[in-house]
Design brief:
With 131 residues, this protein is α+β, with helices and mostly antiparallel strands. 51% of the residues lie in helices and 21% in strands. The chain has one domain (2-130): Sufe protein. Chain: A (Alpha-Beta Complex), CATH 3.90.1010.10. A hairpin with a 2-residue loop joins strand 2 (39-48) and strand 3. Residues 34, 37, 39, 61-62, 64-65, 102, 104-105, 108 line the site of one FE2/S2 (inorganic) cluster. This is NIF system FeS cluster assembly NifU N-terminal domain-containing protein.
Length: 131
């Protein structure tokens, strides 16, 4: 069981790692962290017509935080921002079968999705207001 979880985490390490240009149109960026364990997730979304076209992350932290962020990016690509905003850490942790002690790692991923969309909304509204 433990090995299976590690396998899942390892698989997820390789999806959507990297960064988008944070100044490009439609890109929202999140930086969230847990001071308690020193783990940080940077997550970005590229949105067009309300749909998340692309998502990237860079996570400095434990394997569960990396797997959670990777899974988060996979889940939200192709989704409407309103739908993606509703993803909870439970959706992530249950899929990854995280043990209780690692649940906060998936909470971090949930926060990262919401913060990235929040950043996009702020910029998007700023752009529409000036248009
Ligand atoms: Fe990625 Fe299950 S397929 S965690
Ligand atoms: Fe803190 Fe995983 S994010 S141990």
């Amino acid at each position: 069981h433990g090995q299976r979880r590690l396998y899942h985490e390892a698989v997820h390490d390789h999806f959507n790692v990297g960064m988008l240009d944070k100044n490009a149109a439609g890109v929202g960026t999140a930086l969230v962290g847990k001071a308690s364990c020193g783990d940080v997730i940077k997550l970005q979304v590229a949105v067009k017509d309300g749909i998340i076209q692309d998502a990237k992350f860079k996570t400095f932290g434990c394997g569960s935080a990396i797997a959670s962020s990777s899974l988060a990016t996979e889940m939200i690509i192709g989704q409407h921002v309103d739908e993606a905003f509703k993803i909870t850490n439970k959706d992530i942790s249950s899929h990854l079968k995280l043990p209780p002690v690692k649940i906060h790692c998936s909470v971090l991923a949930e926060e990262a999705i919401q913060a990235a969309i929040g950043d996009w909304r702020k910029k998007h509204e700023a752009v529409s207001a000036s248009a």
